[in-house]
Amino acid sequence: MKIRKHKSRGLFLSCVLSQGIFLFSSLVLLLIFCAISSSMEDPDSITTPLSLCALYLGSLIGGFSASKLSDAGIISGLIAGVLSAVIIFAMSAFPLPSSGVTETKSLILTLIVVPISLSGAFIGKKRAKKPKRRNKRYS
Fold this sequence. Notes:
Blueprint: H1 11-38, H2 44-69, H3 74-91, H4 103-111, H5 113-123
């Protein structure tokens, strides 16, 4: 059996790389959900829940990828979640049309990204392999 040397990327670099995956997956999910909502009669009623769903699923994928890219496990998901929340908060500073959501509700919805990313890291955590049992034949 070959033993491969595993070169670690480091905790911060893997979390930054996972932010690219987070942004890409969130954007793809948002486009899919926008296509779904535009096919309905009243797209305004479902736009906010679907956009939040795309954000949180992207955060779950980002935490999962941070855990898989680094050796730190759950800590990388926590850092990736904080970085995702900072990116979302920075994007909310752009002068875009108002969504009608209050600042406190927006802050709470943004901070929910951190535990969801943490749960994605928990799902993607590298687990120790269990030794295989050999079935012994008794004659």
